[in-house]
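not sure who needs this but someone in the group chat was asking about HD domain-containing protein from Salegentibacter agarivorans so here u go. i didnt clean anything up, its just raw.
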Amino acid sequence: MKKFVNNLYKNQALFYKVFLFALTAVLIVYLLPKGGNFKYEIPKGKPWQYENLYAPFDFAILKSEEEIQDERQQIINNHTPYFQFNKEIPNQVKSEVPEVVTEVFPDSILKNREIQIIGFVNETLEGVYEYGLLQDNNRLEDNQLVYLRKGNEAFEISYKNILKQDQVRDFLNSEIEESNLSEVENELLEVFFNLIEPNVSFDSEFTQKELQSKLDNISYTRGNIEQGSRVIARGEVVEGNKYNILRSLKNEYESQVWSESNYKWIIVGYSVLVALALLMLLLFIRKYRQEIFENNVKVTFIFFNILFMVLLTTLVVNFNIDYVYVVPLCILPLTLKAFFDARLGMFTHVITVLLLGFIVPNSYEYMFLQIIAGIVTILTVSELYKRANLFISVGQITLVYIISYFAFTVIQEGNIADVEGEVLLTFLLGGLATLFVQPLIYIYEKIFGMVSDMSLLELSDTNSKLLKELSEKAPGTFHHSLNVANLAEAAANEINANAMLVRVGALYHDIGKMKNPTYFSENQTSAVNSHDELAPKESAQIITDHVINGIEIAKKHNLPDRVIDFIRTHHGTTTVYFFYMKEKEQNDNAVADDFRYPGPIPFSKETAILMMCDSVEAASKSLKEPTAGVIDNFVEKIIDKQMKEEQFLNANITFKEIQVVKKILKRKLKNIFHLRVEYPE
């Protein structure tokens, strides 16, 4: 039992990775659509390259989206509007005729003609309200047919039959002119205008209800294909009706209700493919990024990002499939490149795109666009902390999306008329969403405790609290650190290392000297040397302790581990040679290990660069009369000694790159000492 517990403890990191792998695979499978997948790609506009395809079951032929839209528009254009006729208003108006006539006409006129006038008014009102008086002019064509609703009955009439308010005066004038009452025209008009009220209005609610009923009854299919019928033969071009039939078969196939047995087999298939994809990623990390594989937080971070992108895409697809390109998938390689490197970012991006192929429609087109966009992302974004670079890269990514979509549309449709502006807009929105990568990286730094180039940029500010403290307590060390940072940054740029990381590492590598600043020569301002009263071993101990002290100070100020690595390794396992030789003069049995730095030796290209630059810059202060030849020999001697002591054995730096670093250091030192080229006499 104890042995089992010990093995469990020793392999807990491996067990965690297995658990993380299984959990991620299960969650991704859960998010994938569970219907069957049509096993053929439908190459619109191209010959059918598979075997003859026969209908596996009866299915209906779906109308295309364009056909449905045309049918909807035709229904909307031809729909007959409804108008509501109010019967109460005419009755009310007629009942008020005698009273209004009495009020308007003088008694002298009514005495002999009251019956005639009232009869004329009533007869004219019958004409006004035959089809009703419209309250608002709806600007319809006169010859357009409309429905006039009187109670529960509706009559189809021409729109021109309904009297409009701007036609009332002309109608009344015409009626009065035809009668024998022209001499009392003014009085009659006053009567009519006091009486007449509109009684017809547009019935928008009923009209919309009827229109919606017709739209809801649109058939989305036309015709059927019987089981066993040939759908398409090998070599036939997939276009027109054939394309619609294939699309209908695919839709029917994927929307079928599967039996429990079928469902379980679909889950098994998905599980195998998802697990295989994630396994390839794990194996890649284990083989080529061993330091990441051994860090469970970093592995968790990578898997979390994959799961996050799958979840986000699933949500968008379920909401509206047309917005699938709004998902800023290029954030994934951007983020991984910011925290790790471009190669890992690209590999993870490809794996994620392959998984998303199960979710999105037109998976080949989607995967092609996303992989190309990911490659452009990796190639164009060199320094994410520079905002201009990010905006330029996002513009290039968006342009690649648009060009690729344009090319696919031309291939599928054979013309550019079918390029949809809405899709181009989704690419623009996706590009804008990609800009969210900077705040997202900041959030990731806080959650996962990692560091990106943007954080390194903040740490490189010499006005930061820790560097200000260094400049006050150990000004010589601070000046030395600035010189080393400039040398290291120049060297890193030449061999394509992380220049920002090595610069920050150089600025902080000697912060441990703040504890005993006067014991280091660059901070000694008087002729008195603090080491004169100490034994060589004690002096060496103080010198080597600045590494341990630096690590403690760095952790106290929450510096990232990537920066602390430079403090640990900048002297590797070299010896404090001056005090070792001094001890040897006094004691022939002096042991070199008593004067050795604790290490470890550099384990990356950047930490190796810092070791070289730090040693060369510090030793260059001892040069009395430097010449070009002296500087060349000086640099060669120091770095060759480090190589001889195997200080770069664990660093992934090549001999060629070391030679380039030497060349940069020689040139920079010559510039510092203002040397001219030595010409032969």
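also The first helix runs from residue 2 to 10. if thats useful
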